[in-house]
């Protein structure tokens, strides 16, 4: 972090059903048969089996950008601009000269997208997962969209527990956040639910416990990568460190992801 560009995997979560607000905003602007994707950036593609929801910053502005014919993405303008430079977006004839030339179709704060149902690739929740709010999302990093894996990410787990506890305050339906958390990776020190175990051990009570969360994040990351074993999927039983890149490549080859640098 901080040294050179971060090499992320950008995952494509296809919209199945818009929140009421977005349904209104996209009407007449996006073809009925077009595909729209939320595009979170992740450093842990091997954990995608455990996706239970996807986070946006409620106060961050997002754009719905036309990627190609009948295909749109939801990311920050900053990320769309980066993607344009990385050739994911436009044919070179139409390359935008400024951010204002990006093919922006709809712009709205994250809070308007909350409650949208999306399809998360590899997730056990094949019925779909919901877009939920997370105050800790940074607009200045990645795509501004964060897919949530509470089994292996302490930030995601702490945020999700807070959303469930205070669903009314956050203006969400509790059941949007109450998806079952399945084990994805076995570790010698923290068992098969690394993030919940660490959150409990370090007595993290809310997403505001940033110091302990930073520590938990570091411990979870090191343990998962160097000592973790896959419990699910094609590479079940194999070491995370040796299959991470293979899972990433499979997601890219199937069209469910693309490389993204920031
Ligand atoms: B990771 P780095 Cl299972 N704001 O993906 C806040 N967090 C963001 C973000 C943003 N704009 N963009 C990406 N992220 C998160 C999975 C995961 C992640 C697991 C465990 C740890 C973990 C599922 N969430 O990250 O600061 C994304 O969450 C801990 C390092 O750019 C992304 O990977 O190094 C990670 O932070 C990128 O963090």
From TrEMBL:
The keyword Nucleotide-binding applies. Keywords: Aminoacyl-tRNA synthetase, ATP-binding, Ligase, Nucleotide-binding, Protein biosynthesis. Belongs to the class-I aminoacyl-tRNA synthetase family. GO terms for molecular function: aminoacyl-tRNA deacylase activity; ATP binding; leucine-tRNA ligase activity. This is leucine--tRNA ligase. The chain holds residues 277 to 538 of 1112 of the full protein. GO terms for biological process: leucyl-tRNA aminoacylation. The keyword Ligase applies. It comes from Penicillium frequentans.
């Amino acid at each position: 972090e901080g040294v050179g560009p971060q090499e992320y995997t950008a995952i494509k979560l296809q919209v199945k059903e818009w929140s009421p607000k977005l349904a209104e905003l996209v009407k007449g602007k996006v073809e009925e048969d077009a595909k729209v994707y939320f595009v979170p950036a992740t450093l842990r593609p091997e954990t995608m089996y455990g996706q239970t929801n996807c986070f946006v910053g409620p106060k961050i502005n997002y754009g719905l950008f036309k990627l190609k014919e009948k295909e749109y993405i939801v990311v920050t303008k900053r990320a769309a601009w980066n993607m344009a430079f990385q050739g994911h977006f436009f044919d070179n004839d139409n390359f935008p000269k400024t951010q204002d030339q990006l093919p922006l179709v709809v712009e709205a704060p994250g809070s308007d997208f909350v409650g949208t149902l999306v399809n998360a690739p590899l997730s056990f929740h094949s019925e779909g997962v919901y877009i939920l709010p997370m105050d800790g999302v940074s607009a200045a990093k990645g795509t501004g969209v964060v897919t949530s894996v509470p089994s292996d990410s302490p930030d995601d787990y702490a945020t999700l527990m807070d959303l469930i506890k205070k669903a009314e305050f956050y203006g969400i339906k509790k059941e949007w956040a109450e998806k079952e958390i399945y084990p994805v990776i076995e570790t010698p020190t923290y068992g098969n639910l690394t993030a919940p175990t660490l959150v409990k051990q370090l007595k993290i009570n809310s997403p505001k416990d940033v110091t302990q969360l930073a520590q938990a994040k570091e411990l979870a990351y090191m343990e998962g990568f160097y000592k973790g074993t896959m419990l699910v999927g094609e590479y079940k039983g194999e070491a995370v460190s040796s299959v991470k890149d293979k899972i990433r490549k499979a997601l890219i080859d199937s069209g469910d992801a693309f490389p993204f640098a920031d």
